[in-house]
Design the sequence.
């Protein structure tokens, strides 16, 4: 697969939508990559290829909900997601409240979504790094349930484990809903998104 390296527009962008995950074939289909799944669902729906290299990420630009948006999949690995996100924020002068984070959540069952306007990292290392490097917790986020860690599992092993086929179907459905929620949030309807999709 070939990725493009080309110039990005330097003005007019108002929002960033970032899916969190880990690059590489060995991480495809793992719980920690639910954020990537959601971003891919959004990109597929609007017929955009997230394949340009910029900001330590694979990126694309698109118009969604009347906003000019940067779509990002950081290539920094999960625990250093903030390096990519804050670089793009600085370049485009995007405030935290205009950065929507798509991420996995082990406190929710597969198929469930939870949308929040802002808040703590909830123990999620990718979000923790974004909050730490940006100095803000004002990031809207859409959390996709990936299932609670079984008692005998190590957390790192659990989030890097793959979904069962039944779980994967539920998470893909949630990713599609997350894509719809992003469009609502970008059009200024975060309350509607929360009412429709929080479960």
Sequence:
């Amino acid at each position: 697969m070939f990725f493009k390296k080309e110039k990005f527009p330097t003005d007019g962008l108002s929002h960033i939508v970032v899916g969190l995950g880990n690059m590489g074939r060995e991480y495809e289909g793992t719980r920690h990559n639910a954020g990537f799944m959601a971003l891919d669902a959004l990109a597929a729906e609007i017929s955009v290829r997230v394949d340009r290299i910029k900001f330590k990420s694979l990126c694309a630009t698109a118009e969604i909900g009347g906003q000019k948006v940067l779509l990002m999949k950081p290539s920094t690995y999960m625990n250093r997601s903030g390096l990519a996100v804050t670089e793009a924020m600085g370049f485009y002068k995007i405030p935290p409240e205009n950065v929507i984070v798509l991420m996995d959540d082990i406190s929710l069952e597969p198929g469930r979504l939870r949308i929040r306007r802002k808040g703590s990292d909830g123990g999620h290392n990718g979000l923790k790094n974004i909050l730490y490097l940006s100095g803000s917790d004002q990031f809207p986020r859409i959390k996709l349930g990936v299932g609670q860690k079984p008692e005998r599992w190590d957390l790192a092993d659990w989030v890097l484990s793959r979904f069962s086929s039944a779980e994967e179907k539920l998470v893909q459905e949630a990713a599609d809903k997350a894509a719809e929620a992003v469009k609502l949030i970008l059009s200024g309807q975060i309350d509607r998104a929360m009412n429709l999709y929080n479960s």
User: Anything to note?
Assistant: Confidence is low (pLDDT under 50) at residues 1-6. Residues 15-197 form a domain with the Rossmann fold fold (CATH 3.40.50.1470). The beta strands are 15-19, 52-54, 57-64, 67-74, 99-105, 113-116, 141-145. The chain has one domain: 15-197.
